[in-house]
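job 3f2a | input accepted
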Amino acid sequence: MTTNVEPSNGKEKNAFELASDEYLSKVDIDYSYKFTKSLEEYKTNEKLGYRTAGSEAEIKTGNKIYEEMKNIGLTEVTRDEFTLDTWEFEKAELSFKDANGQDYHSVLGAYQVNFNTNGVKEFDVVYAGKGTKNDLAELDIEGKIVLVDINQREEWWVNYPALQAHFKGAAAIIAVQEGGYSEVDPDALNAQDICGPDDAPAFSMSQTDAKVLKEAISNSETGTLKVNFDAKSTVNFDGKSYNYYGKIIGKDPESYIILSAHYDSYFTGFQDDNAAIGLMLGIAKGLIDSGYQPEKTIIFNALAAEEWGVSNTRYDWSTGAYNQIFRIHPEWAGKAVANINFELPAYEHAKSEEIRSVYELKPYLEDFAKKVPAVDGVYEEGISVVSPLRTWSDDFSFSLGGVPALRNDFQDSEFMRTHYHSQFDTDETYNEKAYLFHHNLYGLLAIYYDQTAVVPLDFTVRLNALKESINQDVFEQSGVSSKELVSQIDEVIAEVDKVNSEVKNINENYQQALNEGDEKTAKKLYEDSRTLNAKLLETFKLAQDQLVKLTWEDVQIFPHEYAQNNIENLSLSIEALNKGEINTALDEYLWAVDNNWYAYDWDREVFDYFTDYVVDQPEERLMWGAGRVIGHVDLYDQINSLIEKKEQPNADVSEELKALNSALENQIQLLKTLVNEELESVKAISETLTK
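job 3f2a | predicted structure (691 res):
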């Protein structure tokens, strides 16, 4: 295994190249790997692992990281306490007689719920297909455990069948992944955040064990099977956990580059996220051992409770990061020029290494990528940069807090379908070359950032994306003009281009001064550019506050896209119904309006529950999702009415059309409002940058 370093062509190396060479010579992935493996020591479940929010295992692991930060030479090592809901999963084991009358024993995974059998307890188990309202309609599940099949990637999250069964009186559900996740092996279990209440219990079973259990149930005359269940899963509210950080203090102690990774995990969690902690500390150790003296202060932040940390909210993950930037250290916003977050880094997720970042960092990162040496046998297609961020990791919380963020991307990897959040996420997935490449890439990126005077934020990328997201057909159909908004965007892009030129000039002069060892000039350039740096970060926070919204499926969108999507699908639904095509309206359009996908398969009580906890819940429990979903169009009654009528010839759908037309008109009015608000936001970006 080798690192290919571009030849210098006889030229004297610059400050970045010299620092890079020293750093690369000190990278020690054996250290990182060994520390990664050591994180498996503490667990809540002796058979499966788990290091969960606020658990004893998480706290002991955090203390271990705290000591290691000091051991490798980080300074001002700090333990930050915060409040969260805690989860200890100790056991879940099921015993029963199989179809041949033989004893069978199954070890289950669990979700963040309260369930304690207080020793072995007998239950009846019933199989209920996917556990939908129709599946449960003719079943007596009172006090029983309900076995259900699920595909959380293509259908719905586990909270839906769990709550449906709970409202029908079930003791718990056992979910079996039939696809989407844990596809690596029939023996694979799965764990995810529950996104639901603690009193609707859910557990996870492998396909192997479920097959045996289903056969035994089908052989039973009653359609149920007696089982012995021994389980203990405990959620406590308003507990404590801790984030940890250490520093390499630079010449400017008040300007930060933040590297982060989370240290909670499901199962063994080798890739997710033990290897990320190992990577982060490996980079820290490499920088310290190389003798690098930073211009800015580099912070290495180990975060608790990324997987889950708040009960009964849709936005129950990234709890540690949200607390760190919004509640514990809000002063980091305006001082931190970057967050580099790590996830699943010891695996080659694609042929090119994808850096996923906020819009504004894309050009800077694309330029930097050219400076990263290759590692033989990995990422043969180089480095690509994609935007915007997604919500599935801690960088999103940092970005909302005002810190320009990025991560090594992983979300589209086959690993997500196979090993992710299963007991097969072990060191057998370890790719040494990918791990080395990430040490090289992100260590060098920290140095590159450090030698940049002014935060390299290019707002033209976001503004162009905003312009490109406008669906002119929908706007014209709605009688909404985009002309003023587009004109304002173009005007601001021209202004931003001037700012970009100024930033580029300052940064090039600053880097030249560093190259020449001219500390006096470098210091003056740096100090004189603090106002500009602050304005760029202020503008970034403004853009995050006003232009980042979420769909009901947690996808980042611009504000107008919310109404735009609904108008398009409502209009097409109405058109289909006017043609008598009920199935077309149901199958292609109505489900795509807000969260109405769930109106098809769940009782109104379940649908309302998971709607209300997004639109009507205190901000402190919505965390990073607070205020990001713009509204809700409730089509539950219309969808279910149409389902009843879809087989009727010449069905009268006048009432449904009336409701849909009313919803459409409301969305058109909302689109007008959102476009006007976006216009003001674009003006505000211009004013903040140029005043």
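job 3f2a | The mean pLDDT is 96.
job 3f2a | closed
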